């Protein structure tokens, strides 16, 4: 995180900007990791329903890539320095790397559901913090969360039984 903010959005104090940037940096790391994980799954999923899952993931990759750009630009707007390098991602993430390589559709979707659970839960937690310091960033994260939750629903629809039970 940039410790010395030279400027921030008009009307926002530097302390609120620093806290907001820190929250957004964590979300940026998570979404860069998510877009790479989604593409990894896209390349390595095999078995029944391969093509449906393969084709479902590319629009998610593109949407998440757009979210990362929005986050990075918000960080810069607030006077921070967005970091999207591989080293920055590895150094700041708090979760283990996605560990499946070539695997069946169900295995990847079960693992991907867990990834979405983590990302979406952390987005919700960020909302609580942002609501008190930056409603603009809060609104941005809210919009992203709506899309991310829908993407998780797409994944879960492949795992759900007709009675609503997730087959994990």
TrEMBL record:
PROSITE patterns: DPS_1. Transmembrane segments: none annotated. Signal peptide: none annotated. Pfam families: Ferritin. Residues 21-160 form the Ferritin/DPS domain. GO terms for molecular function: ferric iron binding; oxidoreductase activity, acting on metal ions. InterPro entries: DPS_DNA-bd (IPR002177), DPS_DNA-bd_CS (IPR023188), Ferritin-like (IPR012347), Ferritin-like_SF (IPR009078), Ferritin_DPS_dom (IPR008331). Belongs to the Dps family. This is DNA starvation/stationary phase protection protein Dps. It comes from Salinimonas marina. The lineage of its organism: Bacteria, Pseudomonadati, Pseudomonadota, Gammaproteobacteria, Alteromonadales. The gene is dps.
């Amino acid at each position: 995180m940039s410790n010395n903010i030279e400027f921030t959005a008009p009307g926002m104090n530097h302390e609120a900007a620093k806290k907001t940037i820190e929250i957004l940096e964590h979300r940026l790391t998570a979404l860069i990791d998510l877009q790479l994980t989604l593409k990894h799954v896209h390349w390595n999923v095999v078995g029944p329903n391969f093509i449906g899952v393969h084709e479902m993931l590319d629009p998610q990759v593109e949407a998440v890539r757009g979210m990362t750009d929005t986050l990075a630009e918000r960080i810069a707007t607030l006077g921070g320095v967005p970091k999207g390098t591989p080293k920055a991602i590895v150094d700041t993430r708090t979760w283990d790397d996605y560990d499946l390589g070539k695997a069946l559709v169900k295995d990847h979707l079960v693992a991907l559901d867990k990834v979405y659970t983590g990302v979406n839960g952390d987005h919700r937690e960020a909302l609580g913090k942002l609501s008190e310091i930056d409603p603009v960033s809060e609104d941005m994260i809210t919009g992203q969360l709506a899309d991310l939750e829908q993407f998780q629903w797409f994944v879960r629809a492949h795992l759900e039984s007709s009675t609503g039970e997730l087959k994990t």
